[in-house]
Write a structure and sequence with these properties.
The structure is a single chain. The protein has eight helices and 30 strands. By secondary structure, the chain is α+β, with helices and mostly antiparallel strands. It has one domain: Cathepsin D, subunit A, domain 1. It starts with a helix and ends in a 5-residue tail after the last strand. The structure holds 2-acetamido-2-deoxy-beta-D-glucopyranose. 2-acetamido-2-deoxy-beta-D-glucopyranose binds next to loops. The site of 2-acetamido-2-deoxy-beta-D-glucopyranose has 8 residues, from loops. GO terms for molecular function: aspartic-type endopeptidase activity. Belongs to the peptidase A1 family. Its EC number is 3.4.23.12. This is Nepenthesin.
Length: 472
């Protein structure tokens, strides 16, 4: 049996898929500047999801940037169906579990780790909940590939011909390394091959002197194959000649038509690190408020987020992005939450988790204060992970309290209006935050709460910036 096949066997034993649909409900919001500072006021009609893609929104086509599109909705070429709340919850949960596993050492403690050498193998993260994709070009001549972008992992991979073991079906033609004049297999003895251990959590193996990688994610989906390099075309003016990536010969799981994954973690093999000599260790993105518009992903600092407010990274271990949460606000009032609550839990920001997870103590304080500010609206049934939902069928506009966050370095940032609610129809509009099971679980700042902001990951300076109004 070839080494690749034994690897396949090992991973087969994990290959239990949760075949869940990944559609998502969306909502639209408009903010009015004339309203009192501590409240947002929106027309209810803006909550109704749009069924048409409107790519020419405020974000414009930014030069030198990649378009960021939601995998589910009118702008997606993969699925026009939006996610249900149950689907979001199931996917978020497996992602949250595996992010936690990445931060956990054998004793079950997390979050004060700063040395990679003390960490166990990473278990990876769920791709199914990655949700946003970009389209890049690979090889010569270049082939377009749509990849989920993910701040929670490092290795970029795509399915590759001849799909020795298995490829799932994808929208674009599968990348054929033999047809690219610039593709090279990486040898087992190269330094880059050894970097796979930290980037994937698995030791690389050797298949007739070609370095082979394996990576597995939280929902048991996985990719394995040859480690190669080729020319990566980000935009027509922006290419990386020797871009290291996984050329997947066995790819299984809930990837839903995308060609693979783009890793934006902090590890040496992430796109961020591989583009660093050209762009510095900086990238930024803006996630659109609804799946009927598009956002963008920019490598390097293009200066457009000059109004960004920065908070220093906190060390959470591994290549994940840690943030320090100091306090939370509702309608300008600071919630009475002991700072030790946030200190104990810690927090990461993640592009793939949909709904922000807070320590239970913090969540209940947030919810209670938010309900006070919403007392004129009738509460209705809870919805899955959401316990604070309103029936707004009898209203034309809604005025709701702003939620604010004080990040480390005393950086105050408002949660965007579009990051406040999950709208399951006008008769069930829910506060889009949820509680962790335990105050000791790490918090996760999810992508719903990041919508419309430019989030700048200045990895070189170890800080993260938030700028409002980056895209529609
Ligand atoms: C890469 O290496 C594998 C294993 O040795 C081999 O089967 C494959 O043909 C090589 N691919 C290319 C494009 O050289």
């Amino acid at each position: 049996m070839s080494p690749l096949n034994s690897l396949v066997l090992i991973l087969y034993s994990f290959s239990l898929f949760f075949l869940l649909a990944v559609a998502r409900k969306e909502f639209v919001v408009e903010s009015s500047d004339e309203e009192p500072q501590h409240y947002h006021t929106l027309k209810l009609s803006s909550f109704l999801p749009s069924s048409m893609c409107n790519p020419s929104t405020k974000g414009d086509k930014k030069r030198g940037s990649l378009e960021v599109v939601h995998k589910h909705g009118p702008c997606s070429k993969f699925s026009k169906d939006m996610l249900t709340v149950e689907e979001i919850q199931t996917q978020d949960q497996s992602r949250v579990d595996s992010l936690r596993a990445r931060l956990t050492i054998n004793t079950g403690k997390h979050n004060t780790l700063d040395s990679k050498t003390t960490l166990p193998a990473k278990s990876g993260i769920t791709i199914g909940s990655g949700n946003y994709f970009v389209t890049v070009g690979l090889g010569t001549p270049k082939k377009d590939l749509s990849l989920v972008f993910d701040t929670g992992s490092d290795l970029t991979w795509t399915q590759c011909e001849p799909c020795e073991v298995s490829c799932y079906s994808q929208q674009e033609p599968i990348f054929a390394p033999s047809m690219s004049t610039t593709y090279t297999n990486i040898s087992c003895t190269s330094t880059e091959c050894s970097w796979l251990t930290s980037a994937t959590g698995y030791l690389p193996s050797c298949v007739s002197s070609t370095c082979a990688y394996a990576i597995q994610y939280g929902d048991r989906s996985f990719s394995l194959g040859y480690f190669g390099k080729d020319k990566l075309t980000i935009t027509s003016e922006d290419t990386i000649n020797d871009f290291y990536f996984g050329c997947g010969q066995d790819n299984e799981g809930l990837f839903r038509g995308v060609a693979g994954l783009l890793g934006l973690g902090q590890d040496k093999l992430s796109l961020l690190s591989q583009a660093a000599s050209k762009h510095g260790k900086v990238f930024s993105y803006c996630l659109p408020s609804q799946s009927s518009s598009v956002g963008y992903l920019t490598l390097g600092n293009d200066g457009t987020a000059s109004n960004a407010k920065y908070t220093p990274f906190s060390t959470v271990g591994n290549s994940l992005y840690g943030l320090e949460l100091l306090a939370m606000y509702v309608a300008g009032t600071k919630l009475t939450i002991s700072p030790t609550v946030f200190k104990t839990s810690g927090m990461i920001i993640d592009s793939g988790t949909v709904i922000t997870r807070l320590p239970p103590t913090a969540y209940s304080a947030l919810r209670d204060k938010f309900r006070e500010g919403m007392s004129e609206y009738p509460l209705t049934n809870p919805l899955d992970i959401f316990d604070t939902c309103y029936d707004l069928s009898n209203f034309q506009t809604i005025r709701f309290p702003k939620i604010g966050v004080l990040w480390g370095g005393n950086t105050y940032v408002d949660v965007p209006a579009s990051g406040t609610f999950y709208v399951n129809g006008i008769s069930q509009v829910c506060l889009a935050f949820t509680s962790n099971g335990d105050d000791s679980n790490i918090g996760i700042w999810g992508n719903t709460q990041q919508k419309t902001q430019v989030i700048v990951y200045d990895v070189g300076a170890r800080k993260i910036g938030f700028a409002s109004g980056g895209c529609a």
